[in-house]
Write a structure and sequence with these properties.
single chain, alpha+beta, four-stranded mixed beta sheet
């Protein structure tokens, strides 16, 4: 389980990526970094790291997975 700091950083990353509507995707904090799940292919350049930790991208996930928090 991740601590509150990592949860706060995941929320900040989701806000930065504008993924806080609960439908287009979400950010999950792990011990090794962050995972970003999006429903569609991400337009533009993907962020490789956030707060010094790597960001792992999962694009084109199903609607239920992208909205499942």
């Amino acid at each position: 389980m991740t601590d509150s700091y990592m949860q706060d950083q995941a929320a900040a990353l989701a806000s930065h990526l504008r993924l806080n509507d609960g439908k287009t995707g979400y950010v999950e904090a792990t011990a090794d970094g962050f995972r970003v799940f999006t429903r569609r292919k991400w337009p533009g350049k993907q962020i490789a790291s956030w707060d010094g930790l790597p960001v792992e991208w999962h694009e084109n996930v199903g609607t239920n997975k992208a909205a499942n928090r």
